[in-house]
Specification:
alpha/beta; TIM Barrel; eight-stranded parallel barrel; two-stranded antiparallel sheet; 19 helices; 9% strand
């Protein structure tokens, strides 16, 4: 059996993936190996995903961005999903998750795996639920064997990381009942398991048979993304007993995954008020022993529908500065509809701005070099350089082309009264030869 990245790192081996991550991050490969060995960095890389370019997520690395794509029962267009993947990659997402629940799920996922050079994640219980309901049964009729069969099949296909809601336990649900939340459970996978637990009066099979899950992940080097099934769905529910109870369980499961040689990262909230974002990151890092933290947003207000990608970026920038490692975007359609290709593009770009802002605040030299280069280009009114240095060159170029200035050197905001040009001419005049 091949070693996982974690097992190789612990054996003192610098894999090709570790070397590639080190080069991309501008770090010593040995530093990457040490961080992977300690569990503070993950490299999601299923050997069966053959077109993958390795990506590192975790402590000391640039903040990464994930884009969720996928179908729904109301909208399942294979061609559109290909466009959404292309939009995510054009906007430079670091990873994508296929969350499809409508149409031919195997064909959709195969299309993503065959065309994605970035890590691909899934939530396997979605496929299990679609299969069961397609047979005329209820989600609560799912067996543990049926769920694990889907997990193993996706691992064989080449999925690099999977979200599994192992922390939605009977004890956590007891805490949820006692808490009296406004929005109960907003995680789709978390709600599936909660309903299953209640209907069957049995423990979550992902928790009860966790060793079985670890065996599959170790065999295919699938990174576990321990899902936050009890994440808050509104600000009023943030950082409550149910959320923290689940997190404590995930911290314990993190150690068990490491002992089994399986890479693991932790998913986090959700809807969190601005003043609680830093505390949420610090709590996760402490309870989960420094494992990489993957946050959805967090969204810092509940009333930004139509602009939730902005609310996400505000929370994401603060979370990244506080130590979050991986930001999951939301799009302008969040809470309203399934996103289309342009929504995906806008979601990725907006979240990348947040990630870059966090990298600057964390003192990442490569990020500061890019901003300094932009400042120099603006001082020189070097438009080709300015447009190339943008996080979103496509949009920047479109705006400039739509608004051509009378003088090519300036823009239509100031025109001939351009402050930058005036100061260059009078404060820093060129010396005559």
């Amino acid at each position: 059996m091949n070693q996982t990245q974690l097992q190789a790192a612990r054996a003192g081996k610098i894999t090709e993936a570790m070397a590639a991550v080190a080069k991309a991050e501008g770090l010593d490969p040995e530093k990457i190996r040490e961080s992977v060995a300690a569990g503070r960095v993950v490299i999601p890389k299923n050997p069966a995903h053959t077109c993958l370019k390795p990506c590192g997520i975790g402590e000391g690395l640039s903040v990464k961005v994930n884009a969720n794509i996928g179908t729904s029962p109301d909208r399942a267009d294979v061609a559109e999903e290909k466009q959404k993947l292309a939009a995510a990659l054009e906007a430079r997402a670091d990873a994508v998750m296929d969350l499809s629940t409508g149409g031919d799920l195997l064909a959709l996922r195969r299309q993503v795996l065959d065309n994605s050079p970035v890590p691909v994640g899934t939530v396997p219980i979605y496929q299990a639920a679609v299969k069961i309901t397609g047979e005329g049964r209820g989600i609560v009729d799912m067996t543990a064997d049926e769920l694990f069969a889907v997990i193993e099949a996706q691992a064989v296909e080449g999925v690099d990381f999977i979200t599994v809601h192992c922390g939605v336990t009977r004890a956590a649900l007891d805490r949820l009942r006692g808490e009296g939340r406004l929005t109960d459970i907003v995680s789709r996978g978390g709600s599936f398991l909660a309903c299953w637990i209640i209907a069957n009066q049995a423990e979550n099979p992902l928790y009860e048979q966790y060793d079985r899950l670890l065996e599959i992940c170790r065999a295919h080097d699938v990174t576990l993304s321990l899902g936050d099934g009890l994440r808050p769905g509104c600000l009023a529910d943030a950082t409550d007993r149910a959320q923290v109870t689940e997190l404590i369980t995930l911290g314990e499961l993190t150690e068990r995954a490491w002992q089994a040689g399986v890479q693991v990262m932790i998913e986090g909230p959700g809807h969190v008020p601005l003043d609680q974002v830093q505390a949420n990151v610090q709590i996760q890092k402490r309870i989960c022993h420094g494992a990489p933290f993957y946050v959805l947003g967090p969204l810092v207000t509940d009333i930004a529908a139509g602009h939730d990608h902005v609310a996400c970026a505000i929370g994401g920038a603060l979370a990244g500065w506080a130590g979050a490692d991986f930001l999951c975007y939301v799009t302008p359609t969040e809470h309203l509809a399934l996103p289309g290709p342009e929504d995906v593009y806008q979601g990725v770009v907006t979240t990348r701005i947040a990630a870059h802002a966090a990298d600057l605040a964390r003192g990442r030299s490569q990020s500061w070099a890019r901003d300094r280069a932009m400042a120099q280009a603006r001082r020189n009114t070097d438009w080709p350089a300015m447009l190339d240095l943008c996080l979103d060159p496509r949009t920047a170029r479109a705006i400039r082309e739509k608004n051509p200035p009378a003088e090519e050197e300036v823009c239509t905001m100031c025109g001939r009264y351009c402050a930058v040009r005036l100061m260059r001419e009078y404060l820093h005049p060129k010396k005559e030869s």
